[in-house]
Amino acid sequence: IRPKIDDTIHHLKTQYGVTKFAGMGYCWGAWMIAKYSAVDACEIVCGVSFHPGWRAEDVFHGPGSGAKMADPIHVPQLVLSAIDDPTWIHPGGQVDTTLETKPFPSKVRLFADVNHGWVNRGDLIDPVVDKAFHEAWDVEAIPFLQWHLQ
Predict the structure, then answer these.
(1) Predicted local distance difference test score (pLDDT) of residue 1
(2) Chain centroid offset of residue 69 CA
């Protein structure tokens, strides 16, 4: 997928003059953002992972690999986990602990009242899901992106 990301960034730079990019993904899309955030020529200034499916790394590289995905990351991350996401991607878990050692600010937040997938497929009629959805976007993601893309 990296060639497609690189081609898209090149197109946006050359055709539209875009100078800064952020990456954002839901579930396994968040896994791709984390992987791209770790490449040496990473062209995004930050990554946002909504209910991250970083455990996909365990499928490709064995148990425990997902928890180590933050090790090579080069750019700030906002990681928004659900209660049923692995504990290693919750605040205080291995991902959070690793990101805290980096020379850039990152944040890991747990949404303890909702399940994996609440941002892109949650039932917004449920007031608990609706509140978590708006906190994920309005309180966390939008300010994080505005800060890093300014």
Answers:
(1) 79
(2) 11
* Helix H or strand E encompassing 59: helix 56-61
Output the CA angle 90-92-98, nearest 5 degrees: 95
Those residues of the chain that have pLDDT short of 50 are none
Among 143, 86, 146, 92, residue whose Cα is nearest residue 116: 86
Q: Are 76 and 100 in contact, with CB atoms under 8 Å apart?
A: no
Predicted pLDDT of residue 2: 87
- E-strand ranges in the chain read 23-27, 47-52, 77-82, 107-111
Distance (Å, rounded) from C-alpha 15 to C-alpha 89? 37
* 81: β partners: 110
Helix (H, G, I), strand (E, B) or coil at 67: helix
Specify whether domain 2-6+22-117+124-149 bears CATH 3.20.20.150: no
Query: Is the CB of residue 52 less than 8 Å from the CB of residue 85?
Result: yes
- The reported pLDDT for the residue numbered 41 is 87
Residues in the chain: 150
